[in-house]
Amino acid sequence: MPPRGPRPGGGGPRKPTGRPTGSGKAPRFAGSTKPSQPTALPDRKVARPAVPVDVHDPDGVRLQKLLAAAGIGSRRACENLIAAGRVEVDGHVVTELGVRIDPLRQSVHVDGERVQLDESRVYLAFNKPLGVVSTMSDELGRPSISDFLGARQDRLFHVGRLDADTEGLLLLTNDGDLAHRLQHPAYGVLKTYLAQVPGPVARDLGKRLRAGIELDDGPVAVDSFKLVDSAPGRALVEVVLHEGRKHVVRRMLAAVGHPVEYLVRTDVGPIRLGDLKVGKTRRLTREEVGKLYTAAGL
Q1: Of the ranges 37-46, 64-73, 228-237, which one carries the lowest mean pLDDT score?
Q2: Closest by CA position to 152, among listed 174, 134, 169
Q3: Could you tell me the residue ranges of all domains in the chain?
Q4: DSSP conformation class of 144
Q5: Separation of alpha carbons 205 and 67, rounded Å
Q6: What is the pLDDT of residues 159-172, one digit of tens each?
Q7: Could you tell me if 204 and 193 are in contact, meaning their C-beta atoms sit under 8 angstroms apart?
Q8: What is each CA distance from 204 to 45, 104, 110, 199, 200, in whole angstroms?
């Protein structure tokens, strides 16, 4: 599905800005990072003045009711947000309390962060085990993603792929627009990997990888590289990039003399693997979904 254009006043696709930040100590040669905690919406006003554009849908649902149902706050608190000019509908500031909208057709932002009002949308984090292929079904009978989802009726997309020998974070959703943007390199959504490789690692390796490595299908460069831990004969490195080519992390590290022995993806944009157990899924929080939309420029 082709990406939609930027919403009015929102700007174009986001560009890579470096590695994501997070908390918690890095694991030694395996494991996962600590999950980030959802944060409340900041108590601030949107700087832009109200724009006299009619976004009212007489057959729709009251805006404050939808915001309250989405977990933004109580009905009264949502009314205060609207009156303060902190809510946008289709890119325009709304301050009238009587506005009705279509939650399936119109987009809503609070303090610049997208709020998903469509209750049919599903957003899951999945910790893919080793040996599982990144498909919903496999004609060869190999373990696939659907084997871990139970009897779900939703038609879910997996965001990007992880090869069978790589474990870690996959996002699953039925939101096709978001899935497309998250995995398309043009939108610069960063993915973070931990790789165990033979050591020692040269001090200038990060500089070389940031400058770019030539592969068979063209050059590739990391957005960030860090030596996390080392021991005699091996090292744990963190690689952050927005590329999505097949086996790109393995091929890149092999090209510089450090073939991957173990690989796990820990982050997709603002979403962290955290302590999610292998083979398990969890629903993303409202705050996490909003941050994904922001990362994808929606």
Answers
A1: 37-46
A2: 174
A3: 61-115, 123-295
A4: B
A5: 48
A6: 888 999 999 999 99
A7: no
A8: 45, 50, 44, 14, 12
Fold entry, domain 61-115: 3.10.290
Q: Which of 163, 165, 216, 275 is catalytic?
A: 163
Residues 58/70, Cβ–Cβ less than 8 Å: no
Give the CATH fold of the 123-295 domain: Pseudouridine synthase (3.30.2350)
Could you say which DSSP state residue 32 is in? -
- What letter does residue 185 receive in the DSSP assignment? G
> Is the distance from CB of 51 to CB of 92 less than 8 angstroms?
yes
Token couple for 65: 């009711």
CA distance 128 to 142: 14
Taking the C-alpha atoms of residue 30 and residue 46, their distance in angstroms, rounded to an integer, is: 43
- What end-to-end distance do the CA atoms of the chain give, in Å? 15
- Single pTM value for the model: 0.75
43 is catalytic: no
